[in-house]
Every structure is written in C-alpha cells, then in structure tokens.
C-alpha cells in the first residue's frame, strides 16, 4: 500500500458539542480545551496511519481564526501531511457549525509532530502496516 492510500485511510473526524463546561467568560471555547482535542485527534490519526506507538513531540503553529461559541458543534479533522523516517506530521482543522443551520466555517488549524517509539520508548522507523 502506498503512503497516499494509507493517508486517505487514516483521516480522522470527530464531532463534539460545545457545552458550558468547555467555555470561558466570553462564552467561547477555551483555547486549551481546543488544543487538547486537537492533540487527541492528531494522535489518533498518527496511530491509525502507522499502527505503531506514537508520541507527540511538538505542536507547530496553531491559528485561532474564529471563536467557537457555546451551543455549536465542532468537527475536528486530522490528516497526515508529512512522513519521515521515524516521525510524521498531522494537520488538524477544526470547523464550527451552528446547531440549527447549515452554516459552517473553519475556526482553528494547527499541526502536530509525532515520533514512533519501540518497546523501550526509543525512536523507531515508521513502517507501513501490512494490508
């Protein structure tokens, strides 16, 4: 299987409702809450791509383009955008949707780097899983 086919198979989508316990005093989602969800989606994406133990080693630029208000739905989409020998990079995009209309827009985008590790927690080569 090619990297492109494995990338397509590993795209990860998660939906969440924005409830009061996830918002700040401006009634918008806490940035830290959004970043935690993004890292989780990135981890799942990296693991689904490699089927190996993966750990987050960095997050690159995270752009908060639109506030995410209470009472909306968010979709987090993770996709592998680069594969190296022992590491890979995942882009996570967060879309915000109104609950009672079809209005949807990009709210946040960021990327996360992961390293594959062996049983001793040392970096190891990423090898595509067999079909």
TrEMBL record:
Pfam families from the UniProt entry: 4HBT
InterPro entries: Cytosol_ACT (IPR040170), HOTDOG_ACOT (IPR033120), HotDog_dom_sf (IPR029069), Thioestr_dom (IPR006683)
Domain HotDog ACOT-type per the UniProt entry, residue ranges: 8-120
This protein's UniProt keywords: Hydrolase
One function term, GO molecular function aspect: long-chain fatty acyl-CoA hydrolase activity
GO-annotated biological processes: acyl-CoA metabolic process; fatty acid catabolic process
A Gene Ontology cellular-component term: cytosol
Keyword set includes Transcription regulation: no
PANTHER family documented for this protein: ACYL COENZYME A THIOESTER HYDROLASE, CYTOSOLIC ACYL COENZYME A THIOESTER HYDROLASE
Record-stated family: Belongs to the acyl coenzyme A hydrolase family.
Protein name: Acyl-CoA thioesterase
